[in-house]
Every structure is written in C-alpha cells, then in structure tokens.
Amino acid sequence: MADPDPRLLSALTTEHFVLQSAINATVAEAGARSTLYMMALSSSLVAVGFLAPSSAALMPFLAIVLPTLFMLGVFTVIRLIDTALEAQQYLAASRASTTTTARCRRRQRTRSRRTCSAGPRPTTSRRSGSGVSWRCSARRRP
After folding, report:
1. In whole angstroms, what separates CA 70 from the centre of its chain?
2. Are the beta carbons of 120 and 109 closer than 8 angstroms?
3. pLDDT tens, the chain, 142 aa long
4. Within-domain flag for 56
5. What are residue 78's phi and psi, to 5 degrees?
6. Which of 9, 32, 102, 110 sits most deeply, having the most CB atoms within 10 A of its CB?
C-alpha cells in the first residue's frame, strides 16, 4: 500500500477544521436566535405588566404584540430545527473526515516503521511548521 500524500493529509485536516468551524457557527446561531426570542418575549411581558392598569392602552398593544411574538416564535423554532439538522450533517462529515485522516496517518506511520531498521522517531519538520513527521533514526553507513 502506498504512502498517503502529505498534501492529502493537509487537505483532510483543513476540511476537518472547516467542518468544526461550521458546527461552531450553527451552535452560536442557535444560541443567538433563542436569546433574541427570549429577550423579545420577556420585554413584551414587562410592557404588558406596565400597561395592565389601563385597558384602553392594553388591548391595542396586545393586538400588535401577541401576533408578532407568535410569528417570531414560529420562525425561531423552524430555524432552530433547521440549524440542528445542519449541525448534524456537519458533524457526520467531520467524523468521516477524522476517520479518514486517522487512517491515512496510521498507514503512514506503519509504512515508515517497516522501512526503518531502528524504528521511526517523531521529528518536527521545518518545512511543515509545527507538524510532526516520522523519520528513520538509523544512520546509513557508506
């Protein structure tokens, strides 16, 4: 079996990072939407409490605010369900990406162990930045 290309590992790692970012964005959006709805609901209830003594002002206010809150709640729930489904898709793709990346790295390590008599040792490559590469620690004699 051939060694996996380092560019493939880099692409898979990048894909995993992008998918994790997308999952975090959907979770943040869900939190922001639910917070917005709860703030609108609590603000309108406080306003209803202030207008309760005056029924002349309360009825027109309720006629405007209650349907608005209802529609905002419906749209919030629909979008939260959509966001949850979107996050599940990203999570499934992220798990597949993680599995593929781990499989490629495992293949690369076992391949380098077979070709090296002294066994592989992790080293940091200057070209790859902080990435760890597996190299043979045996010195070749002429």
Report:
1. 30
2. yes
3. 566 677 877 877 888 888 888 889 999 999 999 999 999 999 999 999 999 998 899 999 999 999 999 999 999 999 999 999 998 888 888 777 777 777 777 776 776 655 544 444 545 444 444 444 444 444 444 4
4. yes
5. -60, -45
6. 9
The tally of domains found in the chain comes to 1
With tokens 């790859």, the residue in question is 128
Expressed as residue numbers, the domain containing 53 is 6-136
Q: What number of residues does the chain have?
A: 142
> Residue 142: inside a domain, yes or no?
no
In a domain, 89, yes or no: yes
- Please tell me whether residue 141 adopts helix, strand or coil conformation: coil
**Residue 106 domain-assigned?**
yes
**What is the rounded distance in angstroms from the CA atom of residue 85 to the CA atom of residue 69?**
24
pTM above 0.70, yes or no: no
